[in-house]
Amino acid sequence: MMMSAMIWKTQMPRTVSLGSVVRCAPCLRLGRALGSLRLFSKMVDVGSRNEINTDRNFANTRFAISQLLNNIHTKTEIDQYLTYFTSVARQQFAIIKIESELFDNKLDQIISCLAMLYHVGLFPIVVHGTSYQVDRELHFLNKNPNYIDGIRVTDEETLQIVKDCFLEQNRKLVDGLKEFGVNAVPMTSGIFDSDFLNKSKFQMVGQITNIKKNIIEDCLNSNSMPILTSLGTGPLGQLLNINSDHAVAELTKVFQPLKVLCLNETGGFYDGETGKRVSMINLEKDFDRLINGDSLHYSTKLKLKEIKELLDYLPKSSSVTIVRIDDFANGLFTGSGVGTTIKKGYQLKKKYTVSEFSDLKKLRHILIKDPKIRCGKENVSCYLRELENTDFTAYYDDPHDVFAVVRNEPNSIPKIDKLLCTRSGWFNNIPEHVFQAILDDYPKVQWIASDKDENIHWHFEKSEGSYAKDGQVLFWRGISDLPDISKLIESFHQQNL
């Protein structure tokens, strides 16, 4: 009975057992409160300086903060993401596309979320559409919207409506952001040089030939947030209607952002057969199957092809996430558990012997990053000699953002002996896929992590049980028999003697 009291299970999330000491799970998330105070004080200070409506600002600010903090586990994790995003030039942070249907009933949430980013020093390039409002105006005028191949046919009358709707939505967003102390800059035209897409077919519809990058860069470098429409300037200076997806794609090619976030009402792609949301698409291994299969609707396949073409211009670390505004923070920062995240992906590779590694120098360089080796408790050469006489499986991706070793010793439950991951790897959720590959090969597995590991929450989430002592935490998955668990803990104690 004493032993079972020391076991933490995911079915009992309110407590975490640390040896003989039981602590409340919220203690693991103490950083949330600290981060919340920091963000909240900044935004409220901004609000008081600008003498805005206190009640409205407080409610929306609290919503924005809770979106960030409720979806990210610790202050350390928040700092990780902020550091990662601010490690690149400002224009490479993110491009955020806002679908037009959100302006009617989600505008306050959009404003508060964008303001949150601004006040933690993150400056996205924001692009919004206005198709929903244009269709509504056309219906009011008893004029049916005309689309060919998903592109709005835009005559002179329709173009004026498009312009008016763009200006109105842009003004609402910019004015709202300024109330939150955000230096938002409206960019309603003059950014996209364009030519006619097909004048005889689509009339006043343009395709982008050049982006005036310097205007956006100057805006970002002056601590401002650019708010763009997708109106273009034609060869004779006339306005042209540009599809907002096309505008985002061209901006992405020019600015190479870490993240492209698309906000809409559906919140992702859905399987047409099961009705379930598709949470992650790894283009490297999923694209052909999804395009040639029947699980996605035709329109979704077209969108997936567009996203693939967009990602072809970006580094592997970039991704596109389609998400609802309610899941803004999680979609932007973690990209897990909400919406649909599409990545270029990678091929996960496996090795079963040391001799299979063609570049031992690179392998040594990877292993040097292991905490035990880095602090001198283990030696790389000795560890590799051990592996030569051990049944093991090594898992890694092409750029070596993640490297894991599972040792399968006789009369023992397989053990994840190494799990090394770069910051980019954590950001792109690669350990999730590696862990699933490990479970496919080893349904029962154990591993040990330091309780000071900055990603300790991830280990708790992936385990079905844990036991901690002297700064080390033993985790296990797929093991339910108490005798097996007792042996694990006994062995764990012996290792720590």
From TrEMBL:
Pfam families in the record: AA_kinase, NAT
Residue intervals of the N-acetyltransferase domain: 347-497
Keyword Transferase in annotation: yes
GO CC, alphabetical: mitochondrial matrix
GO biological process terms held by the UniProt record: L-arginine biosynthetic process
One Gene Ontology MF term: ATP binding
Protein name: N-acetyltransferase domain-containing protein
SUPFAM superfamilies linked: Carbamate kinase-like
Keywords: Amino-acid biosynthesis, Arginine biosynthesis, ATP-binding, Kinase, Nucleotide-binding, Transferase
Lineage top rank: taxon: Eukaryota
Lineage, opening ranks: Eukaryota, Fungi, Dikarya, Ascomycota, Saccharomycotina
Annotated metabolic or biological route of this protein: Amino-acid biosynthesis; L-arginine biosynthesis; N(2)-acetyl-L-ornithine from L-glutamate: step 2/4
